[in-house]
Input
Amino acid sequence: MGKATGFIDYKREEAKERDPKTRTRDWKEYAAPFSDATLKTQGARCMDCGTPFCHIGMEIGGATSGCPIYNLIPEWNDLVYKGKWKEALERLMLTNNFPEFTGRVCPAPCEGSCTVAISDPAVAIKNIERAIIDKGFENGWITPRIPQKRTGKKVAIIGSGPAGLASADQLNQAGHSVTIYERADRAGGLLMYGIPNMKLEKEVVERRVNLLRQEGIDFILNTEIGKDILAEELREQYDAVILCTGAQKQRDLVIKGREAKGIHIAMDYLTASTKALLDDKQTIPAFDAAGKDVIVIGGGDTGADCIATAVRQGAKSVTQFGKHPQLPLARSADNQWPEYPHVFGLEYAHKEAKAVYGEDPRQYSIQTTKFVKDEAGNLKELHTIDMQKVRNEKGMFVYQEVEGSEKVWPAELVLIAIGFEGTETPLLTEFGVNITPNKRVEAAYGDYRTNVDKVYAAGDSRRGQSLIVWAINEGRDVAKQVDLELMGETVLP
Output
């Protein structure tokens, strides 16, 4: 694949980015595309490795390794190297319904398991993927695919995130009539409101949604199941119902002073900020970081997105708290290839905060102990203590407080980004589906049927908080199962 010695002859080039300080003055995407010449040499680095691990799509050590939608990565890398862009697009679309999303926001577990990455930087798979689909749209190669015939079967999908959109796309192409119900005012789920514009411009999401509409999929927005329409009505009207509601319920930090004004769940903040931007309004006052000392509690991607948003809103300062120690610069002995590499890096948001405020905003091994409010009930500060990772008497790693490390931080806006508990239960109760102890829909992977006849579940609502590629994986897979159930056989891959 590619050039036989390409991985030796050429070095990996990182994605081009707009200047961190300049880009914080707007909400446009921070990443810039490679030139065709650069993409050719990057595609040439894909070696003829015999057994590619980049698309194994499995979990190792609790993290995803390889591509869960089994993209034909070596094939389209080779085609890009040869300049055969349209053929590369055809290979890419065989397995991935939405490369324009994954090429922008997926953490690229494929690169962590790239064979070149055993000893050298991985092939720039994610950037090549984005370039292929972007070139497809630019050249008019992406056009509506109208099904030639309809089966007469009707399917309702609850939720328009990546799992819902993927299942809808597949089922529509199989000839079924598909309707997506979404409680928000715009389709896309977390793609629209959970991921900020500078990572994924909303025109990219709307372009795909409009294409799906042209292909025959109906979107019913501003509609909440159980409130605007009953679950029983859907079961009567449709031959199958698929729950793709995501894992929307975020974990809260219930400690002393939590009632203070100015403490918000991160996803509420991101949603409000994006909605204000799309509605061409100023930021919503309660969520405005302008002139405030902002602290983000939680060290993951959602926390990083909060940092980038607060910087653009003109925060006085931004600090991010993480429970865990700083990651090593290279793989540790217990994090070997092809596992996902848990190594230190600067995310786009950290680069921006460092450029604006002069230092990396992250604080490691730290725990918030209480919030303090002023006489008017507004947050004015929070207290923390350092943590250290030690082995207990059973030999297990635990975190314990470091005596004498207490600290007080000025804070007027706190954003809690410590993960998700599961899916919201009112809708699940409305359908009568069984719920697991960790608040997920009870449905087996690969089967997706719930305990309720004709009702299926896929994506984060079934598996819990996960990656966009797993959502697409399950969206495609549940569509296959529904098609099989409705028709007795399936034409879907």
Observations:
- The radius of gyration is 23 Å.
- The mean pLDDT is 95.
- The chain has three domains: 6-138, 154-248+421-487, 252-418.
